[in-house]
Amino acid sequence: DVKLVESGGKSAEPGGSLRLACEASGFTFSSYAMNWVRQAPGKGLEWVSYISSGSSIIYYADSVKGRFTVSRDNGKNLLFLQMNGLRAEDTATYFCTTDRGVAGRGYFDDWGQGSLVSVSS
Amino acid sequence: DIQMTQSPSTLSASVGDRVTITCRASQSIDIWVAWYQQKPGKAPKVLIYKASSLNSGVSSNFSGSGSGTDFSLTISSLQPDDFATYYCQEYATFSRSFGQGTKVQIK
User: Is A99 in a helix, a strand, or coil?
Assistant: First the structure.
């Protein structure tokens, strides 16, 4: 069975940095594009970032472009999200998901349980 | 970016009711729409992809339709386990916008 487990979420101050990780198992991680999707408390879903299976194609939402960096380690089945310049509006549960589509145009198939990031002073 | 306008935002219904949720895209997106169900404290689960394809393991009680700009998710007979929040999502572009969500609650 596909399993995605996020970690690294915690409290941070505005302007600070955090690194989220997502450990994948139960499927051939290196063959799948991946995404980060977030959900602010009590709010809807927002796609954050996409990375292709070989890391050659990367996309970001405008709200995080220039501040967040997605990467992956296919040898260790890990997906990362480096978050710099954190803002209060980045407070959310961050989910990693598999991607079912082509070149960044897909839906979100399997989801992790999420990792909560809270940004406040 | 494509905007997805979902309605209603809240829906009160009874077990056994037929329920329809609609989603309108700000421009044509062919059939590139998925629908998700989310329960409190849980990750979303994909129900429908490509507007009308039922995801593996999902009850046939759920169906999707539409193309172009207008889409709908129908629950043919609402079950107790179906009370949740539902989201549409376009994937015609890499920005992958979601609708605002529809909370289906007990009447």
Answer: strand
Query: Do A39 and A27 touch, CB atoms closer than 8 A?
Result: no
| Maximum distance among all Cα pairs of chain B, rounded to whole angstroms | 38
Alpha-carbon gap, residue A96 to A67, rounded angstroms = 18
> Average pLDDT for residues B25-50, to the nearest whole number?
97
The letter for the amino acid at B50 is K
Of all helices (H) and strands (E), which one includes residue B91? none
Interface contact A109, partner B, CB < 8 A? yes
The token pair at A40 is: 């602010």
Among B9, B20, B23, residue whose Cα is nearest residue B82: B20
Q: Is A50 on the interface with B (CB under 8 A)?
A: yes
Angle at B65 between CA B59 and CA B67, to 5 degrees: 145
Any idea which residue has 């999200």 for tokens? Answer: A81
pLDDT tens sequence across A44-70: 999 999 999 999 999 999 999 999 999
Count CB atoms within 10 A of the CB of residue A8: 16
B56 touches chain A (CB under 8 A): no
CA B43 to chain centre: 15
